[in-house]
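F.,

This is the one I mentioned.
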């Protein structure tokens, strides 16, 4: 009985995750590969300056790109963007 409930919860969780991905993923299709790289760094918790330093771009460029990605993904805010990235399981970019 407990095992059945656990299996049911797992199936339901996978279904919910798949539905969230279908809602969020189309926005990601409008984001270029370089912006996805930057997005992974931003949502991993790095500051704009740190992202810029790692990618060899200015902090202002990071801010502009982050704004464009937020708009393209219809996230509304940085926390919304982080939530969307988590739903899509975007891994933080490797350092170095």
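My design for it:
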């Amino acid at each position: 009985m407990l095992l059945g409930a656990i299996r049911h919860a797992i199936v339901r969780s996978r279904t919910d995750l798949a539905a969230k991905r279908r809602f969020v993923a189309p926005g990601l299709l409008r984001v270029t590969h370089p912006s996805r790289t930057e997005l992974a760094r931003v949502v991993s918790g790095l500051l704009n300056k740190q992202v810029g330093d790692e990618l060899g771009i200015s902090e202002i460029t990071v801010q502009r790109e982050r704004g464009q990605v937020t708009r393209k993904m219809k996230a509304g805010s940085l926390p919304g963007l982080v939530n969307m990235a988590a739903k899509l399981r975007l891994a933080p970019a490797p350092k170095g």
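The helical segments are 2-29, 33-43, 48-55, 59-72, 78-87.

Talk soon.
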